[in-house]
Amino acid sequence: MPRKVFDGVDYDDGYDDDYDYDDLDDADYYGKAQPSEPVKETIKRGTWSCPICTYDNDESMTACDICGVFRNPLPHMNNNHDKKTATAKTSDSSSAKTQWSKTNNVEDNNHVKDGVLRLQANNKASASSSISKESIPSMESSSKLSTGNEQLGDQVSGASSRRNRMGEGTPSVEEIRPQSHNRGMSKSDLPSKSRAPYKPEKWMLPEKEGSDLNQLNLAIVGHVDSGKSTLSGRLLHLLGRISQKQMHKYEKEAKIQGKGSFAYAWALDESPEERERGITMTVGVAYFDTKNYHVVVLDSPGHKDFIPNMISGATQADAAILVIDASIGSFEAGVDPTKGQTREHAQLIRSFGVDQLIVAINKMDVVEYSKERYDTIKQKLGAFLRLCGFKDLSVLWIPLSAMENQNLVSASSDARLRSWYQGPHLLDAIDSLQPPTRDISKPVVMPVCDVVKSQSTGQVSAIGKLASGALRSGSKVLVMPSGDVGTVRSLERDSRPCTVARAGDNVSVVLHGVEETNIMSGDVLCHPEFPVPTAKHVELKVLVLDGSAPIVIGSQLEFHVHHAKEAARVVKIISLLDPKTGKASKKTPRCLVAKQSAILEVVLNGSVCAEEYSNCKALGRVSLRSLGRTVAVGVITRLIED
Amino acid sequence: MKIVRRDLVRDGPGSVKMVPVDSDDLWFAYNLIAPGDSVMAVTVRKVLREAASGGRDAERVKLKLEIKVEAVDYDKVGTVLRIRGKNVLENEHVKIGAFHTLEIELQRPFVLRKGVWDSLALDVLHQASDPGASADLAVVLMQEGLAHILLVGRSMTTTRARIETSIPRKHGPAIAGYDSALNKFFENVLQAFLKHIDFSVVRCAVIASPGFTKDQFHRHLLLEAERRQLRPIIENKSRIILVHTSSGYKHSLREVLDAPNVMNMIKDTKAAQEVRALKDFFDMLSNDPDRACYGPKHVEVAHERLAIQTLLITDDLFRNADVETRKKYVNLVESVKGSGGTAHIFSSMHISGEQLAQLTGIAAVLRFPLPDLEDIEM
């Protein structure tokens, strides 16, 4: 174990053991594969003719293929919450989670409906299509009455739906009834649930490998004034994304305002407030291409007050560049535990699941490209990053100077640097990052980072990164938590229209049919049949960071999940977790202090769209802040219905 | 609160005639009046009278009633105190034993007769009659897209307005949208500011936010005041202070009260003392957890060992308790004071009181560590 150089605090060995939230995505979580879709529906069992459109449907269907009308009218029809109901899933499988594309309701189903068929039928249906969500832990599903939803017939026999708005409680186990008897009567009264399978359509799957560059979302974080915006601006300029004329304009204007050195940063900081004060306040988004990737740069603010905005940017990141100011004094100020942001940023991006990090040691020209300074920084910071949970192999160290354009897109021309550094330059380092895995096969989920209403056309567009699934023009989307349904009019990526957007793409979605007041930053766009739950009362598993005040029952904190933030209050501390084993070690402790992991319950002032971490990572990561510091980071383990 | 006449024996029965002057006084009255006391006041009652023609006539008659209190209800929104009870005074219109609800209003005297005037009640009475220390502080707590206007009074903090809008980020062409949305937001906050903040009552106004929102709003405020000739703002320009907080949510109010320039102005007031006492408690909890405890059981145990140095208790506990528990708490407070410690009674309407109430409502900082408290069930 390397000696801790800079402070005497003893970090637990198990710090990063507990922190490996990413381990949750191993195969064992998702359980055994479900048997594949039963094939049977083509058995000629006879046909019944639909009373409305007189189409001859197969005996196995409970609803007409063409018009969606049920074969037998439902006995109970509830009218509430049309859009938000979910059909429960079936869980005849093991207690492991099931993936989206696997079907659950296997049994002796005659009624199978594969994803495509259902989608078709659903498209005809009204907005109140039932939603089925498979992602709840099996073995449990709450059963609430379904709404008199025609689509339910398709889903399953004996399905019952769950109120989506109420968040998810612990579902109870259900069983599937064989569909053969009781077609019409299924839903509402029967306790069993079923989950309709989600099958991604053909256009969603990526085209042949190699034909398209992968998209990589890169967050740039670091202490204030370390040179993040300047570095991004430089990169954009060198790769030709900013024309020479544009650059001249920035330089001229910057000089007039007395901020000549910020000329490159102005490429990212576009608002007058940011330029006047010389800082970044909100995340600046820019695009450039490297050999292997379409890179989306998320230039984050470094200032302590704007960390909520930085969190918003970091949730979208796949990899990150941590910019360090090498000059004497600035580095020390940056790593200061209370006043510096370097540590807080590193901990936050790690908690967002980023495991690949490039540490760019900037302003090397000020320290004359000295190797000793580089080594000191590398050693100090390396120890800290290791404690955060970054593996040594996934951290790359690049000394550079954004101001003098050294070691950015080509090997350095400065002799002093070249004498001791032979490693890759920044662009090469970016190229060497591993491509992140993308969840294309799940229903679309896109947390909305920003909502823009264009003055000229009056159209509302939502900007964000797709966490899973895919979208194209014409797709129907559901805005949660307001429940509005709209259609995608067009997609834009990097100010250029595109046809399909897949998981991992950072796009601007122009929506049709959604009121401006019904959508705002922090909402989530999802598939109308697989709505994202909202909750006000959640159970979390958190790790308390150091330097924070103790957390007691009643502590008031700010709760951040994807782009949403709410004021929250701790109502119960359920148990402490042993950092080594992860098991509960002490029930109901009095308070939580730094470096402890625990399970606790918080109640929010307003409801947010959130999901258990095991179902959807992007919607399950949370950070708790108080008094300007991040107090704890963690994941949602359970949504509690009130 | 104007005390017109006092006629009581310490720890014995007695009566006091008083006139509430502002809404804070209603809060004091709420803390004083307990079930079992009797209140006499002038009130209006609908009375059925036989008219000459034989028909019954309902008439609203103003009469002086004395009722034995059964329930007291404080209406935060309407700032009205309602006391429900049975009539005990002989009256031509109302029988003895009939139920009546008295409404205590401002500027109307009433007489409170209690069986036992314990030290706590006398404390409250003393505070109520203290003319000085009217803390009134108006705070505009904001962040981009969210603003709260709060009035911090002597014994309570009320939220006067809450404004929330969605402000788009500054992406490329949409910058113009950001500006106009921000201006609309500031305009709304300004309207609320003018409506709820009265500089004749309030000592000073604080604008607090993270980042630069407060500076932007302050600039907007002054510009608009000049443009529209808003006298109240122009004359009181110097009484507007800017403070930095970490967020615009209500719980950041404690940071406002902690800020040095605000603290100077309100240091003698209850609100500031409460914030400081609670802060000390949390500091102790983080530095030396064995010297801090909360929860009635733990505090009792600590008290038995004479370990309590500072007792923090909310007035909620006194108000809702039955006579036995109330006496127990009163004794607790008195004995802590007697043994050289200090007791802080938090008003549950202040943010620190709310936070303490979340934490079971009673907490203590101890003189020496008691590590075995951990093992005792809460």
From TrEMBL, chain A:
Residues 75-200 are annotated as: Disordered. Residues 213-444 form the Tr-type G domain. Keywords: Cytoplasm, Elongation factor, GTP-binding, Metal-binding, Methylation, Nucleotide-binding, Protein biosynthesis, Zinc, Zinc-finger. It is found in: Cytoplasm. Residues 147-161, 179-191 have a biased composition (Polar residues). Signal peptide: none annotated. GO terms for molecular function: GTP binding; GTPase activity; translation elongation factor activity; zinc ion binding. InterPro entries: EFTu-like_2 (IPR004161), GTP-eEF1A_C (IPR054696), P-loop_NTPase (IPR027417), T_Tr_GTP-bd_dom (IPR000795), TRAFAC_GTPase_members (IPR050100), Transl_B-barrel_sf (IPR009000), Transl_elong_EF1A/Init_IF2_C (IPR009001), Znf_RanBP2 (IPR001876). GO terms for cellular component: cytoplasm. It comes from the Eukaryota. Pfam families: GTP-eEF1A_C (PF22594), GTP_EFTU (PF00009), GTP_EFTU_D2 (PF03144). Residues 87-98, 125-146 have a biased composition (Low complexity). Residues 44-73 form the RanBP2-type domain. Transmembrane segments: none annotated. Belongs to the TRAFAC class translation factor GTPase superfamily. Classic translation factor GTPase family. EF-Tu/EF-1A subfamily. This protein promotes the GTP-dependent binding of aminoacyl-tRNA to the A-site of ribosomes during protein biosynthesis. This is Elongation factor 1-alpha isoform X3.
Automatic annotation (TrEMBL), chain B:
The keyword Nucleus applies. InterPro entries: eFR1_2_sf, eRF1_2, eRF1_3, eRF1_Pelota-like_N, Pelota/DOM34_N, Pelota_N, Ribosomal_eL30-like_sf, TF_pelota. It is found in: Cytoplasm; Nucleus. The keyword Disulfide bond does not apply. Residues 1-130 form the eRF1/Pelota-like N-terminal domain. Coiled coil: none annotated. It holds the Pfam family eRF1_3. GO terms for biological process: nonfunctional rRNA decay; nuclear-transcribed mRNA catabolic process, no-go decay; nuclear-transcribed mRNA catabolic process, non-stop decay; ribosome disassembly; RNA surveillance. GO terms for cellular component: cytoplasm; nucleus. GO terms for molecular function: metal ion binding. Its cofactor is a divalent metal cation. Keywords: Cytoplasm, Metal-binding, Nucleus. PANTHER family: PELOTA, PROTEIN PELOTA HOMOLOG. Component of the Pelota-HBS1L complex, a complex that recognizes stalled ribosomes and triggers the No-Go Decay (NGD) pathway. In the Pelota-HBS1L complex, pelo recognizes ribosomes stalled at the 3' end of an mRNA and engages stalled ribosomes by destabilizing mRNA in the mRNA channel. Following ribosome-binding, the Pelota-HBS1L complex promotes the disassembly of stalled ribosomes, followed by degradation of damaged mRNAs as part of the NGD pathway. Belongs to the eukaryotic release factor 1 family. Pelota subfamily. This is Protein pelota homolog. It comes from Punica granatum (Pomegranate).
